[in-house]
Design brief:
111 residues, alpha+beta, two-stranded antiparallel sheet, 4 helices
């Protein structure tokens, strides 16, 4: 039996195998949700520069499997948020290799 996790929609406690619950699946791809990204700014505006891209490639090469589910990792999750601890952005011990789904779940939980 697959392990269920909270819906990837921030604030939703519905348990799902992966991604969004039925109530939020359609809304996840709507323009209303995509407009949230406009307020976040681009990755460059948030401090993810060439040094970050280089670090990210190296980190994922060293840690190819998702730490939560074992699938292929595609995201680097910071234990301590970059916005609060910019000095830890390129520190391996502050990072976790995760797949897109697991990263979304952790981020939705505020981790």
């Amino acid at each position: 039996m697959a392990i269920k996790k909270p819906c990837a929609r921030p604030g939703c406690a519905e348990l799902v195998v992966r991604g969004y619950c039925e109530a939020h699946r359609a809304a996840a791809t709507s323009t209303r949700w995509q407009s949230h990204d406009r307020f976040r700014g681009s990755s460059r505006e948030r401090g993810y520069d060439t040094n970050w891209e280089r670090f990210r490639r190296m980190f994922l090469a060293r840690h190819p499997a998702c730490e939560d589910c074992g699938r292929l990792a595609s995201e680097v999750h910071h234990e301590k948020k970059v916005a609060e601890h910019p000095e830890l952005k390129l520190v391996e011990s502050n990072c976790h290799a995760l797949c897109k789904g697991c990263h979304s779940v952790r981020t939705a939980r505020g981790e």
